[in-house]
Amino acid sequence: GEPSEAIYELSEGFTERTIVWKEFRKEPSFLCTWKDMCFAIREEDESGSVLCYHRMGDGYALQDELELQGGALCHILYDPACSVLYCSFYGTGHVAAVKVENYHFTEVLNSFKLPANEESKVARAHCCAKLPEGNMLLFAGIAQDRIFVYETDQGKIVPELPVEEIVLEKGAGPRHLLFHPILNYLYCITEYSNEIYVYRLE
C-alpha cells in the first residue's frame, strides 16, 4: 500500500521538507520518538496495537508489535525514566502501561478503564502527560470533562482509582495536555468548547 507513516526533516525556516523514513502500516494514528526508538499505534475500533521501531541508518526497522485490550488507541507517551509506554484508548476509555526493554514490549504492567461520565456512562481516554518532576500521570477524559491524576510506581499506574480529578466545565471535552517546560503550569486544550485551560501546579 501507499506509505502511511513518515518522518520528515524540515529545513531552517521550515520552508522545505524531506522524507527521511516512510512505511505502510494499517490504521496508523500517532508516533512518538525517543533517541533511536520510534513508537507507533494502530487505532482500530475493537483493539489497539503498539509498535516499536529501531533506527538503523536513515530509516527505522520494526522490532516488535503488541495488541492491547481496548478500542481506538489514539495516544502514547514514552517515559524514559522507567522505560514505560503509556497508552490512551479513545474508544473504550482504557489506559495501559507497557514495559519496554531492548526495543521490545516485555510486560503489560497494568490496564484498566478510566471512570465513566456519570450521565452518559461513556469513558474515553484521549491523551496523557507525565508531571516533569515526580510520579504523577494525568489522563484527559474527553467525554467525562475531567483530567484524572494517578500516581505511578516504577512505571505501573497505581492505584487504579485516581488520586485527584480536575473538573472542567460541562461539555468542555479536554483533549490534549501539555506541561510548560520551565514554569509550573499545565495547559489543557478542549475539543468541544474550543478553549485553553491553564492550571498552576501547587
Secondary structure topology:
Blueprint: E1 5-10, E2 17-23, E3 28-34, E4 37-43, E5 48-56, E6 59-68, E7 73-79, E8 84-89, E9 94-101, E10 104-113, E11 127-130, E12 136-141, E13 146-153, E14 156-158, E15 164-167, E16 174-179, E17 185-190, E18 196-200
Antiparallel strand pairs: 1-2, 3-4, 4-5, 5-6, 7-8, 8-9, 9-10, 11-12, 12-13, 13-14, 13-15, 16-17, 17-18
Major beta-sheet overview: 5 strands, antiparallel
Q: List the helices and strands in order.
A: EEEEEEEEEEEEEEEEEE
Q: Compute the separation of the termini in Å.
A: 50 Å
User: How many DSSP helices?
Assistant: 0
SSE class = mainly beta
Helix % is under 10%
Poorly predicted runs are none
Strand content: over 45%
For the CA atoms, what is the radius of gyration? 17 Å
Describe this structure in words.
By secondary structure, the protein is mainly beta. It has strands at residues 5-10, 17-23, 28-34, 37-43, 48-56, 59-68, 73-79, 84-89, 94-101, 104-113, 127-130, 136-141, 146-153, 156-158, 164-167, 174-179, 185-190, 196-200. The strands form five sheets. Strands 11, 12, 13, 14 and 15 form a five-stranded antiparallel beta sheet that branches. The protein has a four-stranded antiparallel beta sheet with strand order 3-4-5-6, with no helix packed on it. A hairpin with a 6-residue loop joins strand 1 (5-10) and strand 2 (17-23). It starts with a strand and ends with a strand.
